[in-house]
């Protein structure tokens, strides 16, 4: 898409516990708890509980702890509980049954784990509400002769999630001792399905990476993983063929690890490119593929029918059976297949979850013959996935979700294409912005949300952490707080490493869409710092300006080394390696340039010139970094780091140095100019020429569909130009000329530019007479669309009294 074993599953409890132990030994150490947000009266718990309240003084974790379980205690929850207690001060953990509990002692903490209705747990929970719903749980901490913690779940998953919340209630006490926050928790998920779909194009995740993901999902209470990598041939092009034995073994191990973390392993197979819907042999082959996974313990299945054509058939038999290809005929063929699978495979296999499907029309709210037929005839049990109002939606609202549910005749299951980076707009990007712009209350309209992650699994954890929190409790979700917690999770609770990740994440904050307008602001923290710098600089408070921005630039420069120092999950540093390399260079270049400005301001031009030259060299080295080897379909490109903010600051600073003696040098003169263009796409006002110099990256000029299209800015007065910047949308140029003119009639080409990819171009201009006009003259388009530019910047110094 462009863009669990059932809880009563065949695997034995002992096998699950073994799988869990393996998972714990291979995963990165977990933070006990990140520091609560300033002023918070309670420890920060994510996903955010439905209800949590402090009930008294905290209790100590004693060197000996008694854990009370019975035959209804979930083995995965028990294994994790013992592990966490030993990691937080318990030298010995005794597991016993309720009727064998030792006498109360102040030297032993007692933890009760099992069904919330178990008498000892129910007594300890007291007035703490125990949710009577799937995945719900309650926690109560009681002080007494023997302090007691009760962890009661509605089901096995609820018990497991109670333990995951307890993990975050451990707090440092005096010395090396630990304590448990004295709270009462009543909690359950707002959405039934929460997790990810590995559904991107490009290099699929490795087996080891997927195993790590299952442990991660357990930590964040996500219960769904859909296996659907587009570039697994046995998932798509070779769907009829059985998996080789080694791959089948891997999938079996993955399903087992998922079960150990209460994650529903969902196997997807996508036959739409070649299936003959009316051929009984293809139905048999598809059911055999699902049967093989069922035999491994898989109990959830999906049939994605996205990114296929419904204007042609794959066989003549379908033409005879369903008629001429088209929306209605495609829906009829798909209905026959999906209803057969639901009624004659899912319904006949014990423990199988309702079939999931992805419609061919998955990303809009237009009612069509295709949707009408699905709505009228698709088995009510089948779960329908929907991506929002676009392939990569900038937002999802309650009204949209309600409309989608009406279109498909059931609550839809959102396949959220964020933070996936397998499409052109994301070339060179890690998408590390927080999960955001999904409206509170969606739980009333959706059956769940799964995020489609990046090819980089560890880097994807930032947004997936947020998606899981939102799906758990959408009404309490706070993107900023969640983002900070996600970075702390990746950093193992280490404060310095968390800060480094937040600094790095700010540089990778942009989240472009398939459309023209980014829905996350790029480098917001850095942008604020730069704005403060120039404001202070221009009002004469230059020492303060230099001091404050240099501190931040040093943080950028040092963030890569801190992230690689060992506290952050190693996989993240591997995923982000090219971006970290580039960040260190860009940060060093910024420090040098700030120092160059400072030296020049103190009258030391030789030092300033040397530092500026060193900065330019570092910038060139940063631009030479490549995403190699690349996991993404966009290949080996320059990793983007704070683009449009960091590079623009460096251009402006360098321009000010170049025009130091001319007065006013380094201003973006384009903001006071008048823009005109040879054409505007379909004469639409939202793409008019004046969008190219309105100072907003949320708007753009778009041309007609011609290679020789141009856009130009007429300045209010002649100026000496030192640099021109162009911020391109995805429809950029393969080649263009940068031209200047005194009178708007006779033009001089100052540079012919052949960009490597769509992004931000910075063209420096040496010397020259004052000019009034600057033009981007297209030579060759990169796409069938016209040219599309967010902003054209002109940096220089007005030459008062010269020219026109």
Describe the protein in words.
The protein has 804 residues and is an alpha/beta fold. Helix 13 (479-490) crosses helix 14 and helix 15 (524-538) runs antiparallel to helix 16 (542-563). Strands 19, 20, 21, 22, 23, 24, 25, 26 and 27 form a nine-stranded antiparallel beta sheet that branches. An eight-stranded parallel beta barrel has the order 11-12-13-14-15-16-17-18, surrounded by four helices. The chain has a seven-stranded mixed beta sheet with strand order 1-10-6-7-5-3-4, sandwiched between helices. It contains 20 helices and 27 strands. 35% of the residues lie in helices and 19% in strands.
Question: What's a concise summary of this model?
Answer:
Helix content is 35%, strand content 19%.
Q: How would you classify the quaternary structure?
A: single chain
Anisotropy-based shape:
globular
Backbone structural class: alpha/beta
By DSSP, the count of extended strands is 27
């Amino acid at each position: 898409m462009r863009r669990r074993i059932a809880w009563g599953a065949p695997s034995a409890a002992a096998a699950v516990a073994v799988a869990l132990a393996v998972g714990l030994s291979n995963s990165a150490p977990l933070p006990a708890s990140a520091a609560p947000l300033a002023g918070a009266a309670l420890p920060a718990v994510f996903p955010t509980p439905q209800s949590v309240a402090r009930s008294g003084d905290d209790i100590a974790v004693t060197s000996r702890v008694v854990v009370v379980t019975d035959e209804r205690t979930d083995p995965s929850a028990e294994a994790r509980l013992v592990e966490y207690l030993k990691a937080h001060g318990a030298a010995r953990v005794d597991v016993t049954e309720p009727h064998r509990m030792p006498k109360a002692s102040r030297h032993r903490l007692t933890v009760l784990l099992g069904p919330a209705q178990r008498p000892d747990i129910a007594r300890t929970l007291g007035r703490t509400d125990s949710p009577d719903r799937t995945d719900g749980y309650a926690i109560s901490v009681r002080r007494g002769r023997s302090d007691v913690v009760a962890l009661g779940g509605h089901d096995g998953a609820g018990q497991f999630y109670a333990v995951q919340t307890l993990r975050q209630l451990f707090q440092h006490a005096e010395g090396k001792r630990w304590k448990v926050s004295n709270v009462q928790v009543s909690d359950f998920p707002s959405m039934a399905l929460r997790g990810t779909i590995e559904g991107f194009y490009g290099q699929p995740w490795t087996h080891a990476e997927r195993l790590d993901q299952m442990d991660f999902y357990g930590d964040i209470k996500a219960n769904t993983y859909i296996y659907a990598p587009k570039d697994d041939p046995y998932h798509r092009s070779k769907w009829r063929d059985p998996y080789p034995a080694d791959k089948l073994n891997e999938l079996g191990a993955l399903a087992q690890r998922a079960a150990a973390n209460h994650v529903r392993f969902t196997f997807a197979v996508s036959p739409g490119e070649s299936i003959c819907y009316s051929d009984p042999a293809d139905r048999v082959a598809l059911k055999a593929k699902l049967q093989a996974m069922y035999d491994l313990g898989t109990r959830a299945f999906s049939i994605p029918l996205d990114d296929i054509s419904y204007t042609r058939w794959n066989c003549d038999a379908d033409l005879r059976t369903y008629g001429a290809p088209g929306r209605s005929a495609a829906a009829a063929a798909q209905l026959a297949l999906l209803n057969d699978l639901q009624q004659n495979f899912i319904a006949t296999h014990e423990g199988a979850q309702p079939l999931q499907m992805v419609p061919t029309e998955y990303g809009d709210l237009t009612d069509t013959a295709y949707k009408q037929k699905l709505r009228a005839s698709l088995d009510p049990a089948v779960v329908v996935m929907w991506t929002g109002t676009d392939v990569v939606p900038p937002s999802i609202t309650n009204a949209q979700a309600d409309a989608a549910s009406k279109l498909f005749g059931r609550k839809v299951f959102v396949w959220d294409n964020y933070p996936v980076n397998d499409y052109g707009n994301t070339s060179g990007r890690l998408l590390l912005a927080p999960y955001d712009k999904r409206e509170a209350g969606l739980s009333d309209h959706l059956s769940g949300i799964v995020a489609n992650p990046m090819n980089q699994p560890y880097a994807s954890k930032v947004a997936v952490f947020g998606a899981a929190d939102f799906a758990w409790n959408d009404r309490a979700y706070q993107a900023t707080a969640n983002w900070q917690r996600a970075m702390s999770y990746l950093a193992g609770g280490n404060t310095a490493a968390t800060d480094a990740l937040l600094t790095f994440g700010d540089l990778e904050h942009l989240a472009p869409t398939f459309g023209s307008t980014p829905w996350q602001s790029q480098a917001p923290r850095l942008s604020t710092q730069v704005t403060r710098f120039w404001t202070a600089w221009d009002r004469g408070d230059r020492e303060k300006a230099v001091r404050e921005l240099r501190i931040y630039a040093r943080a950028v420069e040092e963030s890569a080394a801190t992230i690689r120092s060992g506290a952050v999950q190693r996989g993240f540093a591997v995923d982000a390696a090219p971006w970290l390399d580039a960040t260190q260079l860009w940060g060093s270049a910024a420090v040098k340039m700030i120092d160059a400005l400072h030296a020049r301001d103190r009258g030391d031009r030789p030092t300033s010139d040397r530092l500026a030259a060193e900065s330019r060299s570092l910038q060139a080295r940063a631009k030479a970094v490549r995403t190699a080897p690349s996991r993404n379909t966009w290949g080996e490109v320059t990793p983007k780091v704070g683009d449009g903010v960091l590079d623009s600051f460096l251009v402006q600073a360098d321009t000010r140095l170049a025009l130091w003696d001319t007065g006013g040098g380094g201003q973006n003169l384009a903001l006071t100019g008048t823009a005109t263009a040879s054409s505007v796409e379909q004469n639409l006002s939202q793409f008019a020429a004046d969008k190219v110099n309105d100072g907003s990256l949320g708007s753009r000029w778009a041309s007609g569909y011609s290679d020789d299209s141009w856009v130009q800015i007429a300045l209010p007065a002649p100026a000496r130009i030192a640099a021109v910047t162009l911020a391109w949308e995805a429809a950029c140029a393969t080649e263009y000329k940068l031209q200047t003119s005194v009178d708007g009639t006779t033009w001089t080409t100052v540079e012919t530019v052949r960009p490597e990819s769509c992004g931000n171009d910075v063209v420096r201009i040496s010397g020259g007479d004052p000019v009034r006009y600057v033009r981007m003259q297209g030579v060759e388009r990169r796409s069938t669309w016209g040219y599309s530019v967010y902003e054209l910047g002109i940096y220089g110094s007005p030459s008062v009294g010269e020219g026109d």
